[in-house]
Amino acid sequence: MTDKQAHLTIDGIENTIDLPIYSSTVGPNVIDVTSITKNGFFTFDPGFMSTAACESKITFIDGDEGILLHRGYPIEQLAVSSDYLETCFLLLNGELPTPAQKQEFVTAIKNNAVVDASVANIIKSFKRESHPMAMLCSAVAALAAVYNDEIDITKEEDRKLTAYRLIAQVPTLAAMVYKHRQDETFIAPDANLGYAENYLNMTFGTAGQAAKVSQIIAKAMDRIFILHADHEQNASTSTVRLSGSSGTNPFAAIAAGISTLWGPAHGGANEAVLNMLEEIGSVENIDKYVAKAKDKNDSFRLMGFGHRVYKNFDPRAKVMKQTCDEVLAELGLENDPLLAIAKRLEQIALEDPYFISKKLYPNVDFYSGIILKAVGIPAEMFTVIFATGRAVGWYAHWDEMVSTAYKIGRPRQLYTGSVKRDYPKK
Ligand code: CMC
Question: 383 CB contacts (<8 Å, ≥6 apart)?
């Protein structure tokens, strides 16, 4: 708390209301408005554009400056110098691991990667054409049934084990979802492989034939997981916190987060990028679509451009662009027709005054969509990959909440419906 206060005067109320101000370590301070209910008011903030719903020490974003920090470390540095599991440890524990801690963490993840047969059977019971997010969401919720006796949220050891199980098993589930849609046999996790490499092997390997995964592709996949690991109080993370605030188990809360991520305004955007590139169809059509994007009377938007928070640049997109170039070169795909459209669009958007003046830069989803397509992952799986990387962020926020004093989330409303009236007499 600071020694500063905000003073609110309201027409018709004699006394001013004193509201405490709390200091952040970086970024905006917050005004504590809880006491205004005593005066018969609620605050009104649809979309929570101005509301801090919690205190957190995990991630900081400054959208104007293009800054994203996890536990204080810039995302660009983590993406280049760290790896996904080390970033997971950091998000969960607040500090980078010592070499011994890292080893222990990696081993724990490898030891918990096998999914129970009951959950594998749930995935098998879905129609093959089911959306991968529907399958993933159900499978993660089903983990609560498997581990019902070890999800006491008041026990630190249960919470630690749950973090391992979640981070370890989401990639196994993601690969199973893919295999089921392909009508192929599930491939078991391989403890000799790195996290991303293992995911790619479970996806592209076949029974008796390991997938050939180059180091560049494995590194790119690992980087995609790092760049999606957490993003502060976004819609899915806020969902996990709100759901978890009822005291429900973390698998159930995270299944709620997965449902939220599914929407096209959130995790579904990378899939939308690919669909858009396919709709454009060839480089000759680009000008027509760019004109549509600029036309105020046309609802078409260039998917993968612009960001609600980042108004200068998306720091994740910078790293992703570099990885994208490496992957395309590695796979010899520089001349792929769809990727040619993507490259040309990127160039236009970076040079065209409309996009420059509105600060519409390619965002992380633009490049991740291209990389995933180049690696051979179908567009319907893109949001599942996002969820795989984000599982740790959801868990870290849930754990932060339940480790401290918290209340069940219960927003209020501005009621504008009918006043009390009597049911008509018959
Ligand atoms: N293509 C063309 N014009 C655009 C676009 C776009 N992608 N995005 C914004 N604009 C224009 C918009 O028409 C508006 O113009 P005007 O000022 O003349 O009315 C102006 O730019 C501001 O747009 P806005 O909708 O007020 O901006 P916003 O901050 O509310 O929206 C956004 C941000 C990401 C929803 C939007 O840029 C968009 O729809 N982008 C495409 C979808 C996309 O790529 N989403 C993924 C974001 S990254 C996901 C994540 O971090 O989780």
Answer: 132, 133, 261, 262, 267, 268, 270, 271
pTM over 0.70: yes
Residue 307 CA, ligand 1 centroid: distance in Å: 6
Q: Which of 266, 325, 336, 352 is catalytic?
A: 266
In angstroms, how far is the first alpha carbon of the chain from the final one?
Answer: 59
Q: Which of 237, 261, 301, 385 to mutate to test the pocket of ligand 1 (most atoms within 8 A of CB)?
A: 301
Long-range CB contacts (within 8 A, 24+) of 160-163: 161/112, 162/250, 162/251, 162/395, 163/92, 163/392, 163/395, 163/399
Asked about 180 being catalytic, the answer comes back as no
CA atoms lying within 13 Å on the CB side of residue 388: 29
Distance CA 36, CA 30 (A): 15
Q: Is 131 a catalytic residue?
A: no
Query: Does residue 32 have an active-site annotation?
Result: no
Among 108-122, 147-161, 239-253, 354-368, the range scoring the smallest mean pLDDT is 354-368
In angstroms, the CA 140 to CA 262 distance is 14
